[in-house]
Amino acid sequence: MQGRIAFFDSGVGGLALLAECSGRFPGEKYLYYGDNANAPYGNRGDREICALADRAFAEIARREIAAAVIACNTVTAECAGSLRRRYPFPIFGIEPAIRPAAAAGGKVLVLATRATLRSARVAALLRENETRAEIACFCPARLAEAVEAAAPDLSALRLEEHLPPGRYDGVVLGCTHYALIGRAIARYYSCPVYDGVAETVDHLQKKLNIRSENASKRAKIDVIFAGSGKIRNEMVFFGLK
Ligand code: DGL
Structure pTM? Predict the structure, then answer.
C-alpha cells in the first residue's frame, strides 16, 4: 500500500488497535498519533473534542497517508463525519461493541466515556439492541486518565476505584484505553469483554484490501510515533506485544 496507515487517539488507548493491526499485517507502514498532552478527551464538550481532533488530523495529514483509523470511540462518536468530509483519504472509526455483547444475551455492562455515552451513535446502538440483552451503561470518569498516567505499567491500576460492582454476562469496553486493560477487567467481572478491536481491524482489512501475510516472519514493524505529548508510546506499544 502506498502511504502509511495512521492510528489516532487522545493518548495511548489506540495502541490496542495498532498492536492488533501491525501484529496481523506487519508488512504495512504505520503512523501512531497520540494527543497525549490533551488526553483525556472523554469529559470534554463536543466542540472541544472536535477542535482537538481537527488539530491532530492536520498534523497527521502532513505525511503520506493511505488511510486513517480513529482509534478512539469518543472521537468516532463525536466527529468521524466532519473528519471524513475534510480529508481525501479513507477514515475508519471504532464504536462500542454493543452488538456482539448483546447478541450473547443476559446482562451487559457498557463502559465508555461521558462523551461517547451521550452520543447519538450509542443511543442508536442501545435502541437497536435493547430486546436482546439487559443493558446498563456506566462512565468510569477517571479511568482513561488513570490508564494514561500509569502507562506503560498498567498492572497497579486499582479497578475497584473506577468500576461499578455487579454481576454481568458481558462487558463492553467502549473506550480504547479500557481495551489496554481488557484482561484485568474480564477477571474483575469474571465474564467476557468486548472491545471491538479485532472487528475494526477485520473491517479495515476488507475495505483496504490488505493481504494477509505470515506475521511471524517479520520482526521489525515500520511505525512512526508522533503526538503532542511525551513520546513514550513506543515503549508502551512494544510492552503490549
Ligand atoms: N481512548 C478514547 C476512547 O476510545 C478516549 C479516552 C479519553 O480520552 O477520554 O474513547
Answer: 0.94
